[in-house]
Amino acid sequence: MAAMGDFSTSRFLTVAEVAEMMRVSKMTVYRLVHAGDMPAVRFGRSYRVPEAAVEQYLRQAVVDGRSETA
């Protein structure tokens, strides 16, 4: 992601775009933002999420599909 405070090359997504990308509801995205699990910038009454933050969140959320009992 861009250095903190330097968003000149960042692409921002709306909550609806993030929800569509992740295949979840907009409310789920709002919960992630309000819980601090996904960074976002507030513009007026709406939020914008850096695209790199979504990609990073998804990379960290990957679950290993191997069985733990094996």
Helix/strand layout:
Elements (H helix, E strand, L loop, with lengths): L11 E3 H8 L3 H10 L5 E3 L2 E5 H10 L10
Antiparallel strand pairs: 1-3, 2-3
Helix pairs in contact: 1-2
The number of helical segments is 3
**Poorly predicted tracts of residues:** none
Q: How helix-rich are the residues, as a percent range?
A: 40-55%
Query: Mean of the pLDDT scores?
Result: 87
Structural class: alpha+beta
Strand order of the largest sheet: 1-3-2
Proportion of residues in β-strands: 15-25%
Number of extended strands: 3
Mind explaining what this structure looks like?
There is one protein chain. With 70 residues, the chain is an alpha+beta fold. 40% of the residues lie in helices and 16% in strands. The protein has helices at residues 15-22, 26-35, 51-60, and strands at residues 12-14, 41-43, 46-50. The chain has a three-stranded antiparallel sheet with strand order 1-3-2. Strand 2 and strand 3 form a beta hairpin. Helix 1 crosses helix 2 (26-35). The model has no long low-confidence stretch (mean pLDDT 87).
